[in-house]
TrEMBL record:
<dbReference type="InterPro" id="IPR012808">
    <property type="entry name" value="CHP02453"/>
</dbReference>
<protein>
    <submittedName>
        <fullName>DUF2461 domain-containing protein</fullName>
    </submittedName>
</protein>
<dbReference type="Pfam" id="PF09365">
    <property type="entry name" value="DUF2461"/>
</dbReference>
<dbReference type="InterPro" id="IPR015996">
    <property type="entry name" value="UCP028451"/>
</dbReference>
Length: 221
């Protein structure tokens, strides 16, 4: 399937789901979701796969077991690419009624990965490399986000030159575009590809310095 953009019908579908997040609405409009959201997202990812790798398309259902918000469906469609063997450093894309979002980096790190991340940030070679890349992305219009401590992490000084980076428990760069006509065309593919290429250095830093977790997976209950 050739990617020709995200149809407006998909964005309208999400507007309706935001207003009525119910099984009744979902069942009545599932065909619209499949044709105008999931199908174009799959086509987009197939076009990107030769350069970035195979993507995981997230399920549309929310995990409400531990959430106060019991609405059953996500109001966006996301997908992530994490190249095999890298462990950390991923590319993300999302479509919703609000438009297109692209992101890269790490959204969740286990405790052993956080420890390696902070050691690398404190390092006299790897730390400046990450700081320079974060500065470059900010100047280029990216928002630098992630889970951060309010306090100074144990073992570090508040006077550290890279204290803002050291406070992070996760870090990712994000860019968002509101709906415009190009979103409904194949030009979206170039927008995502160019953006993901801009995140290659950030993701490589995470792959080289953080890697995969060594913790045992939690048993399912």
């Amino acid at each position: 399937m050739t990617f020709d953009g995200f149809p407006d019908e998909g964005l309208v579908f999400y507007e309706g789901l935001e207003a009525d997040n119910s099984r009744t609405f979902w069942t009545a409009h599932r065909a619209t979701y499949e044709a105008h959201v999931r199908a174009p997202m799959t086509a987009l990812l197939e076009e990107l796969a030769p350069e970035f790798g195979t993507a995981k398309v997230f399920r549309p259902y929310r995990d409400v077991r531990f959430s106060h918000d019991k609405t059953p469906y996500k109001t966006h469609q996301g997908a992530v690419v994490t190249p095999e063997g890298r462990g950390a450093g991923s590319w993300y894309v999302q479509i919703s009624a609000d438009g297109l979002l692209v992101s890269g980096g790490c959204w969740r790190l286990e405790s052993d990965q956080v420890a390696r991340y902070r050691r690398a940030v404190a390092d006299d070679v790897q730390g400046p490399r990450l700081a320079a890349e974060v500065d470059r992305l900010r100047v280029g219009g990216w928002d630098i986000e992630g889970d951060r401590l309010v306090r100074v992490p144990a073992g570090f000084s508040a006077d550290d030159d890279r204290i803002d980076l050291l406070k992070h428990r996760s870090l990712h760069a994000t860019r968002h575009w509101t709906p415009e006509e190009w979103l409904h065309t194949a030009a979206t593919l170039d927008r995502v590809r160019t953006s993901w290429r801009d995140l290659v250095t950030l993701n490589a830093w995470f792959a080289d310095n953080v890697g995969a977790t060594t913790k045992e997976p939690r048993p399912r209950r």
